[in-house]
Protein: Small acidic protein
Amino acid sequence: MTTSLKVTAKELRETALQLAEAHGLLPDELPSRTEALLLLAVAALKEIEADESSSSEIATDAKSARHILRSHLPRKKRERVDELPDEHDTTDSNNNNNNNNNNNNKNNKSDKKEEDDVDLGQYANTDVFDGNTKKRAKFARLMGGGKHEGTHHNTFAADKSTLKSINGALEEQFNNAITRHGKKGLGA
Structure:
């Protein structure tokens, strides 16, 4: 079966438009050419996966490439939750607004720095934070992403035989400790 390049390009364009709409974007709203090309690339990989005439090896490679590129796809930015009015009475909210304005002026530079520098790994492109930088920073701090640390050495999981020998040695040490001291544990 032969297909023309025009027909394939038209189908690819339609798939890319659907993908853009699924991400909440308008086709004319893309800020850069790179984002448009990313949408087209992901749409092409999706079409390769769905194509029944492609081999399973090509389909699996296309799927893995699509998953890699998916995190870089543009998304429509949501409005910040902080900008919505609180349900508290007006006097409390006025006092809070004055305090927040002072804090926001001081923390604007640090928030931008944290947002750019924090590595959240697989959670970097989720919609959970709703654009709230404080939530994002707190999550990063709790998960250890704000420390800018990576592994400083190659860390590999031990194979089964090594794990068995380590576990056996630990059990032997534990049993020796129990029999020597005549206690039911290693504690006091």
In short: The CA atoms of residues 24 and 76 lie 5 Å apart.
